[in-house]
Amino acid sequence: MQLRSAICLSAAALFLAGCATKETEPPYRVFVTNEGSGDVTVINPVSLKVMATIPLGKRPRGIHLGPGGRLFVALSGHPNSPPGVDESTLLPPDKSADGVGIFDVFQNKLIRTIPGGANPEQVALSKDGSIVYVANQDADGLTLLDLVSGKDLGTVPTGEEPEGIAASPDGRFVYVTSETEGIVTQIDTATRKVGKQTKACNHPRTVIAIPDGTRIAIACESDGNIAILDAVTLEPVQTIRVGKQYKVMGMAVTKDGSTVYVTSGRAKTLFALDLKTYAIRDTWPLTGTRSWGVALSPDEKLLFTANGPSNNVTVVSTDTGKVLADIKAGTLPWGVAVVPNPAAR
Question: Please, are residues 242 and 251 in contact by the beta-carbon 8 Å criterion?
């Protein structure tokens, strides 16, 4: 009897040990586009380790989560031309590589690429998920693509070198920034024409829509501030001054619209801005080099920043502002998307 009990206890211990060492599926996954290596890094936010690295295509940058577990990624065959590079020395663009990659998170693979205009940088979706909007740097406009047919529905002029793009929560408008001309264009999604256009600031990067639909926020890189505009009239509401020494770039907003988190490139600083008082609430140091894309976890307790030159992703606690980890990614991480995990139980 004692021998049998000992065997049973040993078997139970082995079973429990096996259960303890088996990694459980995380409640969500973090997808990071790598502009230099042409792939996406998938991160487990619980273990803070890389789960997979999956090929996408040339220069994946903007990444956007759509319905049905689909990620939409801007792909570009235009050679990378960082500041200070003479573009006349670059290789000619591979226009066949320009497009929008559609990635299925259930299958964990790229399932389709559709032509997306000249040199796509960022993407957004219509409210019903039937149309993808593409900011095309070399076309100076916003291209509309029908996702069912893959048909190009035309390009709306937005100013030279459009970059940031966001759709309003009600689906009525799409906003696009022009980094060269410093303007923001509001496009009416019903008419597919320019609604309003105004000077926003110098070198606007990212644009986001505040969840209540009343305002938009624009990261003004050269000015070192965040411009808040009325979402309908595009009239200025407020300017949140961060400092010209900070090249503000990426933004992530909380679900209640109370806080926006802002990356500042090579300044290695993350800002938490209060959208009620329009003041800087917190300033936190970062470890990654040239932080750009940023995203919040579903519970808004973690921030993930894509750091290009250091080829990693920084994980930050929104409670303490402390860096929890730097996770190795591919070459030149650019965009970040947080996706609920269908395999989690």
Answer: no
